[in-house]
Design a protein that fits this description.
This protein is α+β, with helices and mostly antiparallel strands and 820 residues long. Helix content is 44%, strand content 12%. The protein has 33 helices and 25 strands. A 5-stranded mixed beta sheet has the order 18-19-17-16-20, covered by helices on one side. The chain has a 5-stranded antiparallel beta sheet with strand order 24-23-22-21-25. Strands 12-13-15-14 form a 4-stranded antiparallel beta sheet. Helix 10 packs parallel to helix 11 and helix 27 packs across helix 29.
Length: 820
């Protein structure tokens, strides 16, 4: 094909592109690479398949999609001026009021057209623009799928199958000369509807009610229902072809007439320029960074508390997967947050690889070994780990509590929460934040309008979700970013900007000075509480969380000492002396006497009762205590019986017996079969090593430059082989190479031809059958022929390969060495 010859097919248009342009196509539409096409023709075919075209259309911005929609209702092919007129209108009905909009469309159209060309949705020169057939079918109007432009079929399409007599009646009613040729009649009617002057004269004679009917149909949908006896205005329109029948009860406004009423515009409001995202508020950037850092610290504390909550083995996993509603409520109560926010923290920890299922028979959620490594990191590094995991996660906690397409409830950690668009929406929302000056909070509704312009939705979403999933994802992103400390007071923080642009190391360095330093002390008070005036060092925080219960959180955390909390510390292996020493070492105030008495009193009674396995037994040196237990009505369900003066046996298991006696107010201790006291240490349960959940990608991943370069070379090589010009088969005495068939030669001719090609350095065309019996055509340049094998540079695969001669069906020389 010469450089000045216009392409006749999409394949020819792609073949004329440079390698960089082909790489751009494959980058924009990575689904075309799976697998790598054999040649340009296969690439063009794949680019025209319905699934690929739908995916490409869904990634267009608003104006590029409007341009494609205008081409779908334009003549095929359409000149550039016709396309421009469909987007700007003819300007004959509204003077200069649309001049600014028309100028914006005129300026933006070349860019939109370039995008459509790059993605192989449009091909051809400016005087013959063609929308690929599949896209035209998807965007063109039909009764089942109205056009996004709101236009109906053309006069020719709407009158297909109409009787010649009916056409004559329409011509007569409109004052057109009669013709017995249906094609000429349709052409005359189309010419009338596209003639501004004559069409205006026709509508001037229309009843006012008829014009009202047209006003209701002009911007779509263009279809309307009629009764067997239509009203006079509808009959007037139908008689003159302004309403054409689709069925016995349905009529349609033909495209040409609608375009006249619209002043030639395919869209009511073209949107060539993306909406501006204005500032809702401007704040001090340093105040924003501090607020975001404070929330980041809260996020770390919340995740740490969740890990402690499930430290000894978390809630059981539902049979269908995920967390039960009751367990979610329990976690929300423990974290002192609402259930949707609790679902966010749980999903965040799961997505970061800190929580997982333990894989046991009685499967439960528990912290992973990676959670211990995470807890050993600095606060700023822990935050960047969570923020990075959040940015990439496709799991969407905002869906928890809703329903799937089958009406089933969606649960936290359940299997149906992945939405592949989530990472793209998060990144784009934060990018729009980053375009504003530091400290500026964007206006939410304007931000949503911008997102809808950048990726207008097509098609219906699942029934359980709203049509605009991306808008919901954007709103969830705004809330989650504030919870995580990505934003502060509605504006993007400096540490988040660094995370997006420069990486985790820079973000951590920006955040570190804003986080409070951990403290090594608390303030003990006489009311059995301890006040932590800031974050505590990890060993201190871990020990104190066992010895006391958290009563309130905030800038300062208040811990309360209770008999149960002290007993919990004793169960973990601490002695009373250890607890006294710990409090004295870490309190800036003297240890209050009531707290010392509480520790000594609980320690004195701790272990007085011993629990073992009989199923379970209770032993105590004080017979009166055992008599008291037996007499207590609350012990009836334990089915206790006396084995000896100091021993009771129970049908309950040791764990249940232990908890029951504690609920009755006793302080028993569990013991082993050897009689030793069992120490229960926190954090003993961990899952086996687990990898974080893999995000579900939105379509194939975007290939890197190396893969793109290799793919383009392979496609070019395959195209060279497929389009190479073969010599006339009659040139060889026994060559038979009919069109599309493998070459056929005798073994002796095959050997002689490849040997001659190796000596002269020429290129030949071979038919080859591999070990699996699959036949293919290849263009090779033989280098060496020996031992029954030919080593050659394979132009089809773009590499050197070796072929057994007995698998070559035949060989033919190429005209001009295959250069054609």
């Amino acid at each position: 094909m010469g450089t000045t010859t216009p392409p006749r097919t999409l394949a020819e248009a792609l073949r004329a592109r440079g390698d960089e342009s082909l790489a751009g196509l494959l980058r924009a539409r990575p689904d075309l690479l799976n697998p790598v096409p054999n040649d340009i023709t296969q690439l063009a075919t794949r680019a025209g398949t319905r699934a690929s075209v739908v995916r490409a259309l869904e990634h267009l911005d608003r104006f590029a999609l409007q341009t494609a929609e205008a081409l779908a209702v334009a003549p095929d092919p359409a000149p550039y001026d016709t396309l421009l007129s469909l987007l700007t209108g003819d300007g004959l009905d509204d003077g200069d009021q649309r001049d600014d909009a028309g100028a914006a469309v005129t300026a933006a159209l070349p860019g939109a057209l370039a995008t459509l060309r790059e993605q192989a949705l449009v091909w051809g020169e400016d005087d013959r623009l063609r929308l690929v057939r599949t896209a035209r079918e998807l965007l063109a109007p039909s009764p089942q799928h109205p056009s996004p432009t709101g236009l109906g079929p053309t006069v020719a399409e709407a009158t297909a199958g109409m009787s010649p007599g009916r056409l004559q009646e329409i011509l007569a009613a409109t004052g057109l000369p009669a013709t017995h040729d249906p094609v000429s009649a349709v052409a005359a009617l189309s010419a009338l509807f596209t003639d501004r002057t004559r069409m205006a004269e026709l509508l001037d004679t229309a009843p006012v009610e008829a014009l009202s009917v047209l006003d209701r149909l002009v911007w779509g949908p263009p279809y309307g229902e009629v009764t067997p006896n239509p009203t006079p205005p509808v009959k007037w329109l139908r008689d003159r072809g302004l309403l054409l029948p689709v069925s016995t009860r349905t009529v349609v406004l033909p495209r040409e007439a609608a375009l006249h009423l619209r002043a030639g515009r395919a869209h009511r409001v073209p949107e060539p320029v993306p909406p501006v995202v204005p500032a809702a508020a401007e704040r001090d950037p340093q105040a924003v960074d501090r607020a975001a850092a404070g929330q980041a610290f809260t996020a770390l504390s919340t995740v740490e508390e969740l890990l402690k909550l499930w430290n000894g083995g978390g809630p059981a996993i539902l049979r269908a997967g995920g967390l039960s509603v009751r367990e979610l409520k329990r976690a929300a109560t423990a974290l002192d947050v609402s259930e949707p926010i609790a679902a966010f923290w749980i999903e965040l920890a799961y997505g970061a690889g800190l929580l997982a299922s333990d894989g046991e028979t009685d499967e439960r959620y528990a912290p992973t070994p990676a959670s211990d490594e995470w807890l050993d990191l600095s606060a700023e590094d822990r935050w960047t780990h969570l923020a990075t995991a959040w940015l990439a996660a496709t799991r969407t906690p905002g869906l928890v509590g809703g329903q799937d397409a089958k009406g089933r409830a969606l649960s936290a950690l359940g299997p149906e929460l992945d939405r592949s668009a989530a990472p793209d929406v998060r990144r784009r929302v934060l990018a729009l934040f980053a375009e504003l000056p530091p400290g500026t909070a964007p206006e939410t509704e304007s931000l949503l309008r911008r997102l809808r312009w950048e990726r207008p939705l097509r098609g219906a979403a699942p029934a359980a979700e709203s049509a605009d999933l991306r808008s919901r994802l954007a709103l969830w992103t705004l809330n989650e970013a504030e919870l995580l400390g990505i934003t502060g007071r509605g504006a993007l923080s400096a540490q988040a900007r660094a995370l997006l642009d420069e990486g985790e190391g820079t973000a951590a360095a920006r955040l570190a000075p804003l986080l409070p330093d951990p403290l090594d002390h608390v303030l003990l008070q006489a009311d059995l509480t301890a006040v932590a005036p800031g974050p505590l060092e990890r060993p201190l925080a871990d020990t104190l969380s066992v010895l006391a219960d958290v009563e309130s959180k905030g800038g300062a955390t208040v811990y309360r000492f209770t008999p149960g909390s002290v007993r919990r510390a004793l169960d973990a292996g601490q002695a009373a002396a250890d607890l006294h020493a710990f409090l004295a070492a870490h309190s800036r105030t003297p240890v209050p006497q009531p707290l010392s008495y509480l520790i000594d009193d609980v320690a004195r009674r701790h272990g007085h009762l011993r629990i073992g396995a009989a199923s379970a037994y209770v032993r105590c040196d004080d017979e009166a205590v055992l008599n008291e237990i037996l007499a207590d009505r609350r012990s009836t369900g334990l089915r206790l019986r006396r084995l000896a003066p100091t021993v009771l046996a129970s049908q309950a298991d040791p764990g249940s017996l232990l908890e029951a006696l504690r609920d009755m107010g006793y302080a028993p201790a569990a013991e082993s079969a050897e009689g030793d006291v069992l120490i229960t240490r926190a954090g003993a349960r961990r899952t086996p090593p687990r990898t974080p959940p893999v995000p579900v990608p939105e379509g194939p991943p975007v290939p890197d430059g190396t893969l793109l370069g290799a793919a383009v070379r392979a496609i070019r090589a395959g195209d060279t082989a497929a389009t190479a010009v073969r010599k006339d088969p009659s040139d060889g005495p026994s060559s038979t190479t009919p069109s599309g068939a493998l070459p056929r030669t005798t073994p002796a001719e095959t050997l002689a031809t490849v040997q001659a090609a190796a000596m002269t350095g020429s290129t030949v065309w071979i038919g080859y059958v591999n070990a699996d019996g699959a036949a293919s055509q290849r263009v090779i340049a033989p280098v060496r022929v020996e031992g029954g094998f030919v080593t050659a540079y394979d132009h089809t695969a773009d590499e050197v390969r070796t072929y057994p001669l007995h698998r070559i069906t035949g060989v033919a020389e190429l005209a001009e060495d295959g250069k054609g």
